[in-house]
## 1
Amino acid sequence: MSSTIVAMAHTADPGFVPPGIGDFKYPPIFPGTAVEWVTKPLLASVLAAVLVFVFFTVGARKRALVPGRFQFAVESTYTFIRNGVARDVIGHGFEKYVPFLVTVFAFIAVNNLFGIIPLIQFPTLARFGFPLMLAICSWLVYLGIGIRRAGFFGYFKSVMFPPGLPVFIYPLLAPIELLQVLVVRPFSLALRLTANMFAGHILLLLFTLGGTYMLTNENLVLKVLAPFSLAGAIGLTSFEAFIEVLQAYIFTLLTALYIAEAMSEEH
Amino acid sequence: MDPQKFTLAGPLVYAIAAVGPGIGIGLIFAAYVSGVARQPEANNILRPIAFLGFALVEILALIGLVFAFL
């Protein structure tokens, strides 16, 4: 079922086992007990939640007019999302959604960054169920906004039959728009996050494990070429850091866009 | 996972899936670069749009990557 490629298969040793889906399954930390579902990614995501909570709570405690370094860092993160995402995208009435957007951004960013932090080194959102729940939260928020503004059938009517179009387009447009709002948006939000983290983790594993395999192999050619693989791992780590924060920003931006679109349906 | 089996199906699926998004991302950032080149003050306005377009296009390639591993 999974496709694997054996690299340098002409050597006699068992060969390099490339990383695959199996590397994303973690064993239980307490096997055989009642809490058998506790694994390392679960603890990492709980740690991320605690870190985000402590970051914002401690940062907002001393409301100094001239902020110190930590307070400045917390305020910069908050105003980045408040101004850059919420105010510019949602516009009028954006203040209600700022806490949700800031929390989503910080939580996803910290969880993603665990992919490159030593000892944790697993992007917690690489398993699909977790971003699916986050995407369902966004989905419920923008559906709730739309339904509260225009009523249940009113909202779906305004989504499926936007005014000002020729009539023969509606049978074509309505199912697509309904599918888009109900299924494609949350699913694509979750899948974007998962697939990016999955691909990044596989690449890091490939370069690091491949480099170590090449370094400890008896073949001299592999030994000489190993530093290139490890240098690639270093370069990929910084690239992954950028992609991880970018994906958190994209999730937040798209959520804000869907909220803005749900808020403007009443026009 | 048996390391001895070699199939080309997975990588081929991703190779075909990556063509369209490659062109798409190139078009998006070509527009962004030439927009900023003509008017450097528009950088802060165009940057969120460029990254949003990048994420929407990249997901098509990543769906192909997911199918390559299934």
## 2
Amino acid sequence: MLSTEIDEAAVEFGRALRGAPAVAIYRIAAEALEADPVAQGLLAELREQQGGLARIQRAGLTPSHEQIERMRLCQAAVRGNEMIMAHLRAGNEVKTYLPVVGRTISAALGADYASLVAPTGC
Amino acid sequence: MLDLSTQDAAGLAAAPRAAEAEALTAAGTFGAALRASPEFAALLAANEALSADAAATIAIEAFGARQAELRTEAMMGILTAAQRADLERLQKAMYAVPTVATYVAATEAFGAVCRETAAVVSAQIGIDFAANCRSGGCCG
């Protein structure tokens, strides 16, 4: 259970971080992607193709030329979808930005915040 | 309605920069609040006591040295029962030193506070902050 002071500081920090361009753009891109049925369909198809190929490889079999071609077409369609690419770019931006924020917290704290909060296994 | 024609390009570009600066300032304030917490004070005190305890240093070094010796076997999963028992004995002896136990408990307690704060921040921003705030990321 967090103390009131720490809880308030975390909420206030979260609020400010939410307004940072990298985070705000990522949230917009994520919401737009979620609401786009074409992009969702392409991603579902990509997952299905990847799962199919993984199953084939796990079974020690070689995928057919047709299966590989379907995968290539699916990947090309995903790469050509602006909504998916915008989400990917925004994700990369936010993954570059958040460690900068983490280092700022660590500098003020005098200890490595990112290590302290790292999920188990990292 | 806001008339964009009255705003110059420099003014428009300054808004995101201001938001970014505000976020970094808030990060610093948040870090300072964590530093002022009783859990962090306890961790600092535990660290100081640990550093001044010769018995703790001996126990930590003994465990660390044996662990380093057996690192390859441990990584390959080929530790013998005797080697495993030896490591467990040294680890138990290390944790039995009061200053070590206090330090471990203080680290756990402060880590728990930090993880809780990360969950609060994640809820605010809609992104897993704990997994993404370290350089190189963590979980993708």
